[in-house]
Design a protein that fits this description.
By secondary structure, this protein is of the alpha/beta class. It has eleven helices and nine strands. It has a seven-stranded mixed beta sheet with strand order 2-3-4-1-5-6-7, sandwiched between helices. The protein has a two-stranded antiparallel ribbon with strand order 8-9. The longest helix has 21 residues. The two termini are 36 Å apart.
Length: 359
């Protein structure tokens, strides 16, 4: 059995979010079946009746195809031992999201929830989005906390960097004037999402930080990303899940390497993040002084790294963090990947607590 298939064996995985999260779902589906990357057409296509043996459950081409906030798309990939479902959402909490959560409450509970909703929230509903977005985040996390069992793992994906110029169907004429400022609004919205996820004890994967020096993998529209980037996201997610569940997962670039043509060396995860010397013992940090991966946690009592504090986001020098003080690649390197790792998950295989340390 393939290592990824073994990790997700008999697991119900739910992915919620926009078109980026749809590609996250698609890459999970394809990696469960074979060692291949998503094609450009697979990345661009939405609402198709079938993708790699999955099925369209609701919306998409079964309904009306559009770029509006009312667009719906529910996809599902099912085998004898795997169930992965995707819901397209344009707002982190709405009547539609409530109906999705009601399905979880009344039916089978997901073992893993991967979620992000940001760009639509901060652009399509209100020019003064901050207060409403924070309220909706709070409602969503609170509802999710009451519905899901303690064993369920929830990963909040932080929104990836946007381009200076945004093109394509997402930016409808009514909000074109917001294009230049959206990349800054996303940074602030990421802070809100990460802080509240931390508050409710959910996990956070900082994709904005991970891809800040990999912008060559972003599409020309300034929003979407190519297949190499999505495979990197999958690797980060599965590594995070395996750590939370206490399962040893081989590196994905080593899985069946003898049967797969290797990527060229300049395909480029040789970025500032990978080439810079490590300045912290591991990729995980948590609340509270406790041992993490054999090391003492660097941050404690809810402290956040400097670039994740509210004061940092209240000024317009945010760009200097990502480019460096002298517009160079030598930007600060903070342990923000896996921003908050909930250390009291039960191992789904042994049902024993992985860590004795509690908040």
């Amino acid at each position: 059995m393939r290592p990824v298939a073994q990790l997700l064996h008999n697991k119900f995985v739910v992915v919620l979010g926009d078109s980026i999260q749809r590609s996250v779902y698609k890459d999970l589906v394809i990696i469960l079946q074979r060692d291949a990357y998503l094609s450009l057409s697979q990345l661009k296509t939405k609402g198709e009746f079938s993708f790699e043996q999955d099925c369209l459950v609701e919306g998409g081409r079964l309904g009306q195809m559009n770029n509006g906030t009312a667009y719906r798309e529910v996809r599902q990939y099912r085998t004898d031992h795997h169930l992965i479902r995707f819901y397209f959402v344009t707002q982190v909490f709405s009547r539609y999201v409530e109906s999705i959560l009601a399905d979880f409450e009344q039916g089978i509970k997901p073992d893993l929830v991967i979620m992000n909703s940001c760009v639509w929230d901060i652009s399509r509903y209100s020019h003064h989005w901050a207060l409403e977005y924070k309220e909706n985040l709070n409602k969503f996390f609170m509802k999710l906390k009451t519905i899901l069992p303690e064993e369920s793992l929830v990963v909040w994906n932080m929104t990836m960097p946007l381009g200076k110029k945004i093109l394509g169907g997402f930016l409808v004429p009514e909000i074109e004037h917001m294009g230049p400022s959206l990349r800054f609004d996303v940074i602030e919205a990421n802070y809100f999402g990460a802080t509240l996820a931390n508050k409710f004890g959910f996990d956070v994967l900082d994709l904005h930080f991970q891809f800040r020096f990999s912008l060559q993998h972003r599409m020309k529209d300034g929003v979407h990303w190519n297949a190499v980037a999505h495979r990197k996201i999958t690797c980060l997610l599965l590594e995070h899940v395996s750590q939370a569940w206490g399962v040893e997962l081989p590196k994905l670039d080593q899985i069946n390497a003898e049967n797969r043509r290797p990527l060229p060396e300049n395909h480029s995860w040789q970025t500032a993040t990978s080439s810079a010397p490590a300045r912290y013992p591991g990729p995980v940090w948590t609340q509270g002084q406790r041992m993490v991966n054999g090391f003492r946690s660097q941050y404690c009592h809810g402290d956040l790294p400097p670039h994740m504090t509210a004061g940092y986001h209240q000024n317009f020098e945010r760009e200097t963090f990502y480019r460096g003080a002298n517009n160079s690649a030598a930007a600060p390197y903070w342990p923000v990947n896996n921003l908050v790792t909930k250390q009291n998950h039960r191992n789904p295989y042994t049902r024993e607590r992985l860590h004795p340390y509690r908040y």
